[in-house]
Amino acid sequence: MDLRQIGRAVAAHKLAAILGLTAAVAFAFLAYVRVSPFGDPMLSYRKQSLWSSAITIQLTQQGFPEGRVIEQTDRRGALVQLAPLYARLANTSQVKERMRKLGPVPGKASVVPVIDENRSSLPLIQISSLTASDVTAVERVRRQAEAFIQYIAQQQAANHVRPANRVLLRVVNGPTTPVVVVPRKITLPVVVFLSMLVVTGGLILALENMQTRGRKPAEPEGEVRAPLEALKLPAEEEPEVQTRPVRPEPVAASQVAGVQAAGKTGRPGPVRTLRGESGHDAS
Predict the structure, then answer these.
(1) What residues form DSSP beta bridges with 50?
(2) Is residue 96 part of a domain?
(3) CA contacts within 13 A on the Cβ side of 62
(4) Which has fewest Cβ within 10 Å: 77, 140, 155, 247?
């Protein structure tokens, strides 16, 4: 079946085509948006885009050791070695429990030690959030950084760590502007829409086939079937007889006299011939 036949089938079943297209749009919309008549909000996306914001925390000590060149011990090396450990501590249940005291904890976060371009470790850790909105992304990363700093300070005070030996956590960057890291997908609505169009097309073709079987095949356009009488061979034509007027030939007087005598006596009379002036017999 070519495109012309498909176009004629769709034109012949406009109602089915319109209903199928409407159903395809409606189902695709419902696959993309969740409708809650009594909810707040009433419309919400089924698949959310994910936002992220980041904050960077430095591991340091009192007195700004980064500004000194000569030290009795390698304090910077010790802080670098503590960065992976602190990255794990920042995402523990104790820190999340402190966050829950201020309200629900949206989304999730990851904490990793920072490495520079030369693949060298630094005394820095980075907290990155992953939530369904830009506002919650910033809120999550800020609350987690504050809860982690308070947790470390509380543990140092509870264990009587001298101020000179304490590791101080300072925010050096962030929270950054939230960005979309996982866009909202439209794969499912597109698949639903195309599937409904295929079903509608199949229904239209089925209706067209049913109608085609129900009616007699149409005669090809431009072809006229001749009646049976016209198929008989023509009979042989008889020659036309033409009638021409016949002029009576002149009859001689002697012949007329002989005919009259024969009529009286019953016998034919003598036939006299007359000679003309030229000496020939008269006709």
Answers:
(1) 182
(2) yes
(3) 6
(4) 247
For residues 117 and 189, state if they share a domain: no
- Same domain? 30 vs 133: no
Tell me: do 29 and 59 sit in the same domain. Answer: no
pTM of the model: 0.58
Q: Do residues 23 and 58 share a domain?
A: no
In a domain, 38, yes or no: yes
What are the helix (H) ranges across 33-121?
75-89, 93-100
- Cβ(120)–Cβ(110) below 8 Å: no
pLDDT at position 237 is 54
pLDDT band at 280 (very low <50, low <70, confident <90, very high): very low
**Whole-angstrom Cα distance, residue 270 to residue 257?**
9
3-class secondary-structure state, position 111: strand
Q: Quick one: pLDDT band at residue 13, thresholds 50, 70, 90?
A: confident
9 within domain boundaries: yes
- Calpha distance 53→109 (Å, rounded): 9
Total domains in the fold of the chain: 2
pLDDT at 281: 46
DSSP state letter for 142: H
pLDDT given at position 170: 92
Q: What are phi and psi of 120, to 5 degrees?
A: -100, 140
Predicted local confidence at residue 143, as pLDDT: 93
Q: Which residue has the higher pLDDT, 96 or 233?
A: 96
The CATH number of whichever domain residue 127 belongs to comes to: 3.30.70.1130
- Residue 130: its pLDDT value, please? 92
Range of the domain at 201: 3-46+185-210
What span, in angstroms and rounded, lies between the C-alpha atoms of 26 and 193? 9
Is residue 53 within 8 A of residue 141, CB to CB? The reply is: yes
**Are 83 and 131 contained in the same domain?**
yes
